[in-house]
Amino acid sequence: MGPYLQEVLPQVAQALDFSRFSFESLTAEDDRVVAVINVGVLHSKAMLMVSEHWVIQGEKAISLWVAYYEPKALLEQLESSSTSFSMLTHTQL
């Protein structure tokens, strides 16, 4: 597993409020899938838009690229919870 799945994703998931989750769009073509979602940031009214870009081979995801749009509220939540967070944007699964 890459550093995004091992280090970043667990930290980010703990700072998000999935009760305020919605899909913006889901697009798939050939071996590429892009999901754009909105999710709340814990302890705030802020919402975060996330774009996930997947590459699929066979029945397995082999690559994931994630973009966080306007992540200021998320970064503040991570800092306030004393979480060390480095913004990694691409990893091989």
What does the model show?
By secondary structure, the chain is of the alpha+beta class. It contains 2 helices and 5 strands; from the N terminus they run αββββαβ. It has helices at 3-14, 72-80; strands at 16-29, 32-41, 47-57, 60-69, 90-92. Strands 1-2-3-4-5 form a 5-stranded antiparallel β-sheet. The longest helix is centred in the N-terminal third of the chain and has 12 residues, at 3-14. The radius of gyration is 14 Å and the shape is globular. The relative contact order is 0.24. Residues 83-93 have low confidence and may be disordered.
Task: Sum this structure up briefly.
With 93 residues, the protein is α+β, with helices and mostly antiparallel strands. Helix content is 23%, strand content 52%.
List the helices and strands and how they pair.
Elements: H1 3-14, E1 16-29, E2 32-41, E3 47-57, E4 60-69, H2 72-80, E5 90-92
Antiparallel strand pairs: 1-2, 2-3, 3-4, 4-5
Outline type: globular
Indicate the CATH topology.
Nuclear Transport Factor 2, Chain: A
Cα distance spanning the termini: 5 Å
What's the helical proportion of residues? Answer: 10-25%
The main sheet orders its strands as 1-2-3-4-5
Summarize model confidence as the mean pLDDT: 82
Low-confidence stretches: 83-93
Taken in chain order, the helices and strands follow as HEEEEHE
